[in-house]
Design goal:
Layout lengths: L37 E5 L1 H10 L6 H10 L4 E5 L9 H10 L3 E6 L3 H10 L3 E4 L20 H12 L3 E6 L3 H10 L3 E5 L1 H5 L4 H20 L3 E5 L7 H5 L4 E6 L1 H10 L1 H17 L2
Parallel strand pairs: 1-2, 1-8, 2-3, 3-4, 4-5, 5-6, 6-7, 7-8
The chain binds pyridoxine-5'-phosphate (PXP).
Pyridoxine-5'-phosphate binds next to strand 8 and helix 10.
């Protein structure tokens, strides 16, 4: 455990992999509030920019190092079936160089699971994937889980890889995820992000996410969240105490165009600290 406070907030404690299984412990800085949060930066869009011109730069692995130096707790990358951004060699280099949590997102396919079992990232997040989509749309269908999904979860667990499922904030999906034996769920925050500017819709989506996070914790799952998060919409989300991990990519890479990557990461950490510290 690093014990490093986020953005100068004494009651927001960051953790490395070890204590994650005890997400509700009391913060060692303020000794009262069980606040634990880790920020994983998704570096896919650095690879998108690189691939747009076929150059070797900007390098997503170098971006990962910069994000970690700026205070992020881990790195997320999505190896898509069409390799539109992250490529196989990026995954290998991330595994070889990262000293913090490496969360590899992938579809539940035999090809991807074989790669994961070879690379052995710290975490695999299984996501739904459609070739025609611009980014991951919707959550994984776990209630009507295919036999393949069950097999893939078992294979990952047998390889000692923590498994997270990217799902909608839906109670039935959460209970089905728990029944599959995974350690973590990542709640899809896309609907919340899309509700920006409509206060009633935002409130409704936050309530859905809060109920989902609460149910997940009751079942003993670790609760992550991600998709469409920005420095503007993250403070209200992290007021949900059960959420202990965020996976954020597009907005931080977009902010980096104007302020640079270290400042963009620090701004996100500050926004998280602000939301976590609010009553
Ligand atoms: N979490 C998951 C499972 C995702 O698929 C994505 C998008 O790749 C993200 C988080 C990050 O979303 P965004 O790029 O909108 O921050």
């Amino acid at each position: 455990m690093s014990g490093r406070p986020l953005a100068g907030e004494s009651c927001v404690e960051s953790v490395e992999r070890g204590p994650i299984s005890r997400p509700n412990r009391t913060c060692s800085f303020c000794a009262t509030v069980p606040l634990v949060m880790r920020l994983h930066i998704n570096v896919d869009h650095v690879a998108t920019l690189r691939n747009a011109r076929g150059t070797p730069y900007p390098d997503p692995v170098e971006a990962a190092r910069v994000c970690l130096d700026a205070g992020a707790h881990g790195i997320t990358a999505h190896l898509r079936e069409d390799r539109r951004h992250i490529r196989d060699e990026d995954v290998q280099r991330l595994r070889a160089t990262l000293r913090s949590t490496f969360n590899l997102e992938m579809a539940s396919t035999d090809e991807m699971i074989a790669i994961a079992c070879k690379v052995v990232p710290d975490v695999v997040t299984l996501v739904p994937e459609r070739r025609e989509e611009r980014t991951t749309e919707g959550g994984l269908e776990v209630v009507k889980a295919s036999p393949a999904l069950r097999t893939h979860v078992e294979q990952l667990r047998a390889a000692d890889i923590k498994v997270s499922l990217f799902i909608a904030p839906d109670l039935a999906q959460i209970e089905a995820s728990h029944a599959l034996g995974v350690e973590q769920i990542e709640l899809h925050t896309g609907e919340y992000a899309h509700a920006a500017g409509d206060a009633a819709a935002e409130k409704r989506e936050l309530e859905r996410l809060a109920a989902a996070a609460k149910r997940g914790r009751e079942l003993g799952l670790e609760i992550a969240a991600g998709h469409g998060l920005t420095t503007k919409n993250v403070p209200a989300l992290v007021a949900i105490p059960e959420i202990i991990e965020l996976n954020i990519g597009h907005a931080t890479v977009a902010d980096a165009v104007f302020v640079g990557l270290p400042a963009a990461v620090r701004a996100m950490l500050a926004a998280i600290g602000k939301g976590r510290a609010s009553p």
